[in-house]
Amino acid sequence: MDLDVRVPVGLMLAIMGALLVAYGIAGDHAVYARSLGINVNAIWGSVLFATGAVLLALARAAAGRRGRS
Amino acid sequence: MTLTWLDWLLMLVYFAFVLGVGVALKRSTTTSAAFFQAGRAIPAWVCGLAFISANLGAQEIIGMAASGAKYGISTSHFYWIGAIPAMVFLGVFMMPFYYGSRARSVPEYLRLRFDEKTRGFNAISFALMTVFSSGISMYAMAKLLQILHIFEAPFAALGLGPEYIFHVCIVSSAIVVLVYVLLGGLSSAIYNEVLQFFLIVAGFMPLVYLGLRDAGGWAGVVQTVPASLTHAWRGFGSAATSPMGVDAFGVAMGLGFVLSFGYWCTDFLVVQRAMAADSMAAARRTPLIAAVPKMLFPFLVVLPGLIALSVHGGVIPVKVYEGSHTAVLDALGRPQLDYDLTVPTLLLRYFPTGMLGLGLTALLASFMSGMAGNVTAFNTVWTYDIYQAYLRPRASDAHYLRVGRLATVFGIAASVLTAYVAAQFNNIMDVLQLVFAFVNAPLLATFLLGMFWKRATGHGAFVGLVAGTAAAALHHGLTLPAGAIAGVKGGWLGNVATYPSEMAQNFWTAIDAWAVCFVVTIVVSLMTKPRDDRELVGLVYSLTEKPRDEQLAWYQRPAILGVLVLAATAALNLVFF
């Protein structure tokens, strides 16, 4: 397969994470009353962003290995 | 609770990626092998995630939480007893025959091992069943999104009534699945299943965290719900005290053996994912890799049911009759809870805008992965095992690729039709579902005898299957679950025995059908002419060279992985004993 599945998955998680983090920081904080006062958008958004970044890094490393061999 | 632009944007991002994957894979999907078998070029971990994701349809997510609220942590038996051992068996013992033989599908294995009629029986019932179950889950999901009320405001803004939510859900998801399967075939479905897997985990993990935190942790749940719900095996000593109405033997035999091995080891929907792997070793690892997240899923999908019972005195809404506000009452006159609303209720309760969009996207993703799984299995079985076998045997590869694409369109259209029929006539659907259960129950005996007893013959397998199916129907027709009236629930031939629950009746119907098929296959096989050993090489255990895995690292060897997975599952059972 020419497409490494980690690329679309990583990109999607990174984009969704970034959107959530941005809203978590800039958006209305009153909405977090329902999530027990926790800013889940910012926290979980950064987890998703980091997961996405790791997947992309792994895909890049694998592509580098393939390129050399 | 209303949806904001952020929620819509997150859904849009998901749809863009789903379709993008299809477009990216279009270039490499030029042969029928690429379309139906993903070119047998997918790494093991990708197949593994797709393997569980294809099974992780919306009905699973909604149903397991509902069952978690009804039966408690013993619902995990569907994972720890009803899936893991069978997945290990598939990887260690059965995969060599599926992957190693020339078969391109599970029915095709039956033709190589037995004969044309056994394959035909399996192919036709399987093809019908996939279309039908994809339609049923479509219906269930669209109905659920409609009664959530969350989409009513945006629809009203467009001048559409709430009934349009149902139509839009069905049509839009059907179109998305259609486009990505048409473009990239099985690879596209598998890649999207991986995408959906990550999304489902991302959407549900924070939900469980917030719910548990609100409930005061697991300790808080244990304090607030009945003790029988927080112990996996309490009361299973006898059927009378078991929360499921089945004793430990019934669970082990019915769920742990017949139903679970029958599904995980013979259902092409899941086996197809493993058959797409890039090597024999990868194909065997696929179900073993899948088993790891699978054994942890109860924390994601069953736990929400218990949380919903525990927090604030229980938050699951009461079931009301459609179109009114009158509560549905049970036999004792108490209002019934609408358990299917467990997950959506928690989503709306704990998720602020943003996370709510992610959670709804996860629900949509589970909806579509279940559908795509059915559709890709259907188009393959239709094209290889029905069209190529009986209608047009010697056509060009390009012709079969075209037929496969047409079958995809037809399969999805038929699913949509089924969804609308389900909306009209609930009973017909129940009856059909039952018929498929009868056909499926004995299949495991046919495969076990086929793979592990070289003396089993085609006539034996076919007669055994028919007899097993008849036995399932007979058993169902003569028994009833407690409190049910004769009809779809059983007893349509008279009532010889009453089971404490519907689940008990299901388990024993399956055990019965399996046993009859097993015995009849053996008897008829012994009376008919066996096939030459040489014809069975690669198809039967005793005549096939064992796959060698000494050259693999320990963590790549199926047997070692299998033992580790089983040990971890046993540990989980002990923790929640």
What does this structure look like?
The complex is a heterodimer of chains A (69) and B (577). Chain A has helices at residues 6-26, 40-68. Chain A is mainly alpha-helical and 69 residues long. Chain A has one domain. The longest helix of chain A has 29 residues, at 40-68. Chain A starts with 5 loop residues before the first helix and ends with a helix. With 577 residues, chain B is mainly α. Chain B has one domain (5-424, 547-575): Sodium/glucose cotransporter. Chain B contains 22 helices and two strands. Chain B has helices at 5-26, 32-37, 44-53, 58-71, 77-80, 84-100, 106-113, 116-147, 152-157, 163-215, 217-224, 248-264, 268-275, 280-310, 342-350, 355-391, 397-424, 426-440, 443-452, 458-478, 502-527, 558-575, and strands spanning 479-481, 497-499. A two-stranded parallel sheet of chain B has the order 1-2.
